[in-house]
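Mods, move this if it's the wrong board.
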Amino acid sequence: MIRDALYVFGEALHAVGDPFAVWGFSSVRRQHVRMQCIKGLNEAWNDAARARVGAIRPGYYTRMGAAIRHATEHLRQCPQRCRLLMLLTDGKPNDLDQYEGRYGLEDTRHAIHEARAAGLTPFCVTIDSAGHDYLPMLFGRQGYALVHRPEDLAHRLTQAWTTLVR
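Not the wrong board. Structure tokens:
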């Protein structure tokens, strides 16, 4: 479902001409945070980018703060007035090395504040049914969308993008 949603979302953004990048991330402790560029900001949405979307596989853990900081550094250089950092996740921040509970949440919250200070608009789309318990603290009450049915994911991504870029 995530791959299908990214295909649809990529096609929609390409059709309207909005520049976008897609990154994947996973982690195994702080020493091994893997950032995977699926489509670079200056790269065309083409068969190669679509193939990388098709190759996405689930990874290990979710060190969100590191991923948000990485994306912030890339987006900080963009000249566009509206710079949206959209995070798609299946759950709360966690990793093996005590990056769970309060520590993971606080690190992520701090990374989101850094992104806002850099002029970005962070927004989260999640399939985590417990997202209402922690996402308001991280992204604010209007800063996230919870997707209850996986088949609604592509629609919710597109709907969020449309609302946020207005």
